[in-house]
Design brief:
The protein is mainly β. The protein has strands at about 25-35, 45-55, 65-70. The protein is globular.
């Protein structure tokens, strides 16, 4: 798959009904590439520094994956 993806967050991505995006004023966005393929962070995984964004914003937010977990 290609890196450099654009997507929109909405209530459709909520893992459970109590964690819908619309229930929060801010959310923390982060990104990680799991080198091992596991869902938990591992040494060597690549990640982007997390950023907090307002859920009412329609501005684009860029996450740059330029860090490595030790």
């Amino acid at each position: 798959s290609e890196l450099g993806q654009t997507f929109a967050l909405s209530d459709a991505q909520a893992m459970t009904p109590q964690f819908k995006v619309s229930k929060f004023t801010e959310v923390k966005l982060s990104a990680r590439i799991a080198m091992s393929g596991t869902p938990t962070k591992q040494s060597g995984d690549l990640f982007a520094k997390a950023v907090v964004v307002k859920t009412t914003s329609s501005d684009l937010t860029t996450l740059v994956i330029d860090q490595v977990f030790p």
